[in-house]
Every structure is written in structure tokens, then in C-alpha cells.
Amino acid sequence: MVSIKKIATDIGVSAATVSNALTGKGRVSEEMTARIRSRAQELGYRPNNLARALKTGQTGILGLVMPDLTNPLFPRIAQMLSIAAERRGLGILIGDSRGSADEQNEVLKRLVDRGVDGLLVVPQKGTSPEMNAVPLAIINTASDPRNTVSADHAGGGALIARHISDIGHRNVVILGGDPVSEVQQDRISGMQSAMRQEIRSSVLWGDAGVAEVAERVRAGATAVLTTSDLLALRVHSELTRAQFSVPRRVSLTGFDNMSLASVMHPTLTTVAQDVEAIADRAIEILTAMIRGQAHPDTGRTLPMRLVVRNSTSNPEI
Amino acid sequence: MVSIKKIATDIGVSAATVSNALTGKGRVSEEMTARIRSRAQELGYRPNNLARALKTGQTGILGLVMPDLTNPLFPRIAQMLSIAAERRGLGILIGDSRGSADEQNEVLKRLVDRGVDGLLVVPQKGTSPEMNAVPLAIINTASDPRNTVSADHAGGGALIARHISDIGHRNVVILGGDPVSEVQQDRISGMQSAMRQEIRSSVLWGDAGVAEVAERVRAGATAVLTTSDLLALRVHSELTRAQFSVPRRVSLTGFDNMSLASVMHPTLTTVAQDVEAIADRAIEILTAMIRGQAHPDTGRTLPMRLVVRNSTSNPEI
DNA sequence: CGAAGTTGATTAATCGTTAAATCAAGTGGG
DNA sequence: CCCACTTGATTTAACGATTAATCAACTTCG
Predict the structure, then answer these.
(1) In CATH terms, is domain B153-273 a member of 3.40.50.2300?
(2) Residues B67, B85: contact at Cβ < 8 Å?
(3) Which of A113, A170, B50, B239 could form a disulfide with B244 if both were Cys (CB 3.0 to 4.6 A apart)?
(4) Where are the transmembrane segments (chains A, B) (predicted)?
């Protein structure tokens, strides 16, 4: 490996001068800078980030902790984060917080031990990660607004509910996956708050809820609003089994606009998060915190977008 | 931050002794080791991995490069790799090789610059990553057997084809996503080689292929074998639109056993990769290479498993 | 009892880079 | 012509660990 010292002795100058020339920091003459730069180029010099990090205390690496990569939305977030980080010359070290909240904190510690400058966390449902060794940005939970970047889940719920309400439904079922998830709670309360007074709605949860949906439709519900596309797909199976046609007999909506939403039959009405914007803002806010600055967008949620497809229509009378 | 030196002066011993006591390397008395260990514990000492890495030349970090996280199988691989790595005390730095093969090589370089000890690569379709600075393990492409860990895609194709053939189909359509992908080619050639002589089969590709499937069924095909679950879902939409019932009129199979396979309607017959085993072996082989050893399993593929669900049945006659 | 070996610790160098302090030489001004 | 200032480079120390070499103090044994 070719080091700064090699270049130095090579040109006959001190290591400090080489460092200064390459980083443009100290005082080096134009001419010397040029000579050093070109020699570095020739030798194929690549700075040793470990040594640099040891000295400066900054690794240029962010830790990313996700609860469960099987949720298809998270990989998209991870990818966008990775792109946003790379654009700023930062790397991303991943940690998996499967299992308990304790495990989550363990992973955070491990990442800090590895020298990350900051942490990006999509928290386990219902947990609030703590770490004071380095700055920390939380993604996608609206609960803690200090350092959180999140889609406006409640707003998204409202969009869906207004759509359903606008096209004439008056008796709807809301289905959530897990009441522990604050995200899902936000989505549901958004739905509820946006529905006009005259609409009858009730909330079901989890596997039991999925099993009960057909019953509710039989009892008069004309629309099923779920908190995830995957849940919607499962409901669709149940409805098909029970011989209820979507959207003719019952309208169905998802959440998150995953790839399957445009590919299932019928295609699914849902709301989309602007994942790219979330990732970008998360990195922006975190790097600002690392620099010790406050970021103006901290705590503001990002709007969601209604995507109307073929799984919703007027209720038949 | 509490360093080794702090502990040293604290106890009144040299830094080297502390290092030896903590790592268990040099010669330190039982008693002194105990004292040092407990003091380190008290102070909450955490070794600085950067400093250690600088000296030893090993960071304990592996680079992971994936082509496209939107493919839902990759996140599962990433997660399993992350778990397998963590179990061995290793970290994973991610890089996204979206775009060209050039980009892929850029990412590899960046990771090496950051000091990774080795690289795990799921290559872009049709590319073969090169990097001689550090050991490199390739995942899921059978093309280059030296340092490759892969499911037995051809074997998986054979499993599916044999199943279809066993239950009586004699006229099948094979549908691939992209002929550039060697994985998909392997799957398809596996299907073809396992089908009995008397079976008529033809291969379609991509969007045009999806559009043509219904036509082929109308012309007498009774089964559609695809190279991915997502593709199968799209085909299912087309078939439904064309009023062909699955599996009554036509059987349909996917590949990879993604979560949607068990949740769509009808549930999808497919083949599963043992992702955990692949991840584990990949890490195992890579760490062996890093230690400079050869691993006995290098180049052997891992068997796939047939998962029969409701999308396949006897052809109606 | 002296040579050789063992034990438990210390010293000093090093990994590659950065940064503050220092220094030599040239420049300009009064 | 001398003092103050600027420029361009060097020295030196440090970041936090590891490791080879060294050393003092005991053991052991012929």
C-alpha cells in the first residue's frame, strides 16, 4: 500500500506537506501542490480512512438499524438511504435489530463501537431507542418529533378515507396489523378523523381481524381500509374465498404502494410514501446534527400521495 | 472516552500489559489480568476498533454489494448475511451497485477504501466483479465456481418441471424475466432438462412474454412456469383478465418462495432457496479466504426445495 | 553455586494521518 | 537598514491500540 510517507520521501518533502497538499488545508505553494497531486495520482494513492478517522475522530460512516427487512418497504428505505449517504461521501454500516428492544440497544452499541458518526434507526414497533454517544435520527415514527423523519401517516390515512368517502361509501371496516405499531395507529386515526360523521366504521386487528372481514362485509360493510398492502392482499384472498368481488361488491385499500400493489389483480388503491425524500431528509438532518447544527426540517412530516387504482369504486346499491 | 492508557495509569501498569491482559495474548499473571479486567469493566472500557484495525490491518468489516434491493429476495439475503456476520463478530458495510457494471466496480473500490476485509457481491446481471485488493465471494450466480455461493437454480428448475410433469401436464410455457440473467437461464435450462421427451414447451421472455401467455394458453398450454414469484403474480393477473382460472384451467408456478407466494390467491407453488444456509456459507467461505485458507464447500451449490401450494393441479381433460 | 530457563512485566516502535507549533527565508514599509 | 509580516515548509506530537524486543527477578538443575 502506498502511504503519504511514500509520496513524501519520493518527492523529498515532509509528510505533513503532502497531507496539506492533498487535503488543501495548510500552506503549500501552488507548484508543490501540483507536483504532489500528480505523483499521488501516478502511484495510485488512496488515503487510509482508518488512520484518518483515528486522528480526526470522524469515520464518515453512519449506522443503520432496521427492525425487520422482510417488510418490503424497508429495503427501499435502506437503498435510498444508501444512495443519499453515498452522494455525500458517507458509508452505511448495517445492523439488524430483530428480536427484542434489548437486542436493538445492543446493536446500537456495537455500531458505536465500530466508530459510526451517527445512527439512523427505524425503531422496533413501540420502542424508543436511546443512545447518547452519537447523534441519532429516527425514521418513520411520528411519536418523538425531536429528531424524527417520517411520512405523514395520519395524513395518508386521511387521503384514503376521504377518497372512500367521496365515492360514496358509508359503512367501512378498518384493518390494522398490530396495535403496538404507532405508525399503524397514526394511519388509522388519520382515517377516522377524515371520515364524515355519517360514516359507520369499526377497527379490526391482526389475524383475527383478517378472518372476520368477510363477516363484516356480509353484514353490510362496502369498503375495507387496511394499513398495509400486504394486509390488503391477504384480505383480498379472504374476500375471494368468500365470493365477494373486489371492487364490485367491496372496495379495498392498502398502504405504502409496494410493488405488488400495481401487479395484483385488481390493482390496488393505496397511498405512497416519498421514500427518497424521507431518506434524503434523514441523512440531511443527521449530518447536520453531527456537525452540531440544527436542521430546519427537523420534526416536520412528509406528505403522502394517494394512488387510485382498480380496487376501489362506488358501492353498489 | 476511556482508553487503554487510562486503565494503565489508573492501575499503575504499562499500556502493553493492559492490552495483553484484555486480549489474553502476552504473558500476564492471573491476578493482574483479573484486576485489569475488572477495572476495565468498571470504567466501561470499549476498545477503539479503529486504532486496533490500523495496527492489525483487519477491520472486522465485510462489504456487501447488491444490484437492486427492490428484488424482495435480496433483503432476505442481506438480513441473513448480517446475522451470520454478527454471529462471528463482523460488521457489514453496504454498497448499492445500481446502474452500470462500472458503477459496481466503483462501489467495490469505495468499500475497499473504507477498509473492508473482504467483499460479498451479488453481481449485476451478466457481470463478473473483479477486485484483487481483498478476498471476494460471489453470491447466487453459478457462472464462476471458484468463489461462488449459490442455490442450485438448475436443480430448482428441475424440481418444478418434474412436479408439473408428474401431475400430467404435456404442454407448458416457460416464462423468464430477462435473458441477460444467468440465474434465470440456469433455472430455465433446469426446467427443460427435467421435462420428459413427450412434453411440448417453449420459452417466452419479459413484458412481451407476459402479454403473450394468455394466447399460448388459448392455444393449448396447460401450465406456465415462471422464473420468479413476482412474474407469476403478473401472469396471474393476465390470466384472470383473460378469464382463465388458476389452477383449474392452467397451472402456474413461481420461484423463490417470497412472502407474497403464501398470501396471494390461489397460493403459489414455487421453489425455495435456503437463504440462511447460503448466507452462512458465504460468510464462512469469505472468512476462510481472509484467513488465507481454502474452504471445502467452495463451488458447491445448495439444493432448493419444492413448495407445492394451490396454483398447480392436474390438467383438466 | 553459577548457568540456563521461566515468568511477568516494561520499552519502544509502529500503523497512516492530521494539526499545532516552530522555523527559515523572503517581502515590504517606515 | 532593521523590524514586522507573510509564505512555504518542517518538526513534533498525537490518535489508541498491538507487538517484538528487552529486562529484572526468580526457579531450577547439574
Answers:
(1) yes
(2) no
(3) B239
(4) none
